[in-house]
Amino acid sequence: MNSVAQFFADIVAGTLDIYVITFTLVTVMVILLFMSFPMVVPLAVAALIGLVHFSATDPQVIIQQMVTGISPNALIAVPMFILAADIMTRGHTAHNLLGLVQSFVGHMRGGLPITTCISCTLFGSVSGSTQATVVSVGKIMRPKLLQAGYKDSFVMALIINASDIAFLIPPSIGLILYGTLANTSVGELFVAGIGPGLLLALMFSVYCYFYSIKHSDDIALVEKTDWAERLRALKKSILPLGFPVLIVGGIYSGIMTPTEAAAFAVLYAVLVECVIYRQLKIKDLMDSALSTGLITAVVFILVGIGQSFSWYISFEQIPQELLAPLSLENASPEFVLFVIALAFFVGCMFVDSLVVLLILTPIFVPIVASVGLDPVLVGVMVTLQMAIGSATPPFGCDIFTAIAIFNRPYMDVIRGTLPFILILFAMTAILIFFPGVALSLRDLAFN
After folding, report:
1. pLDDT of 153-201, one tens digit each?
2. Burial class of residue 41 (count of CB atoms within 10 Å of its CB; 0-12, 13-18, 19+)
3. 444's torsion region: left (phi>0), alpha (psi -120 to 50) or beta?
4. Domain residue ranges of the chain, discontinuous segments joined by +
5. pLDDT at position 320
6. What is the rounded distance in angstroms from the CA atom of residue 387 to the CA atom of residue 403?
């Protein structure tokens, strides 16, 4: 008891500088968040206070670090993948992919929810965004699932959590940003995310199958589609299916870098939706460009401010001091991976996953190197936790996206999420103890 009292006395007295700095930064950020400032303001103000008050450093360093944060060439891929996804979301890509999957598995027990899982996986390979997947797949599949007799709590939870797969399947914005922050190959991250993404889709599908058996009295089966209709659906989906094949195949074969693949994705999306399908006009492309510009501005401002904040806490060696009691440098790789997963999961439950990525990645990168963990494996793990956080109460962004598009109360949206979150936890454990799930395909492609 005396040691605890002495600890806080030292903080008040200023003799434990690192704790004083940490307490001040956290307090400033929490107060500003409760005052409803956007996240960039708490990050910028905290970094500015730290530099001026504690370090007596020229505040121009913040501007320098912001520029440094948005300078890596790999970030050029972000707006282009966002633009390609926006174009395809406005067009017929989602409808065609859903039609193809449903024609093959829709008649099976649990066929419609399995269709939703597979469609989220396929659309994730087009959009790279969980929120875009919630909107595109959810708007189409929710009425069909409700009509078949599935409970709305199950339906909304399924759509929210199956959309998480979009974070793992390339092109993933999360993987691109992690690769930039951790100086890790984006191409390797893309390929490594495929295995866990497909396994997660399978695990969700198995749960949907058993859920449908348990509630078979309430759920109606969909009529089986004949082969002629399946071939028509396949014909309509050839071009959307070519998107992930060309992107991943181009990176896998070495023909394209991820940045070049992103540029090609925009060209491919325009050709498919504007020239071949003729669903979009010049005005639609202008709207897509404006939407992409707004989203990109938000992302890049966060990246720049996050780099400044991360530079400051690294400059003060705050992460090293706070994590020193855990002795992570001497811990097993599995334990370090568990700590990283826990830190990102808890952080993403309360703060936007991009912000958590920007703050925590520089903290753990030196530790990952010291214990010999593969940074690509860590990138997949981090991205998985970002996906879980986006669908986990209280502040998962996909939850609020579902509230907006389904017009349902918060508690209704989250009521059925627990089984899916447990599956996502199981996926986390699999990555910790069986890293080959992520690394085998990467090793095959790049070694």
Report:
1. 899 999 989 888 888 888 788 888 898 888 898 889 988 999 999 999 9
2. middle
3. alpha
4. 70-280+316-446
5. 65
6. 18
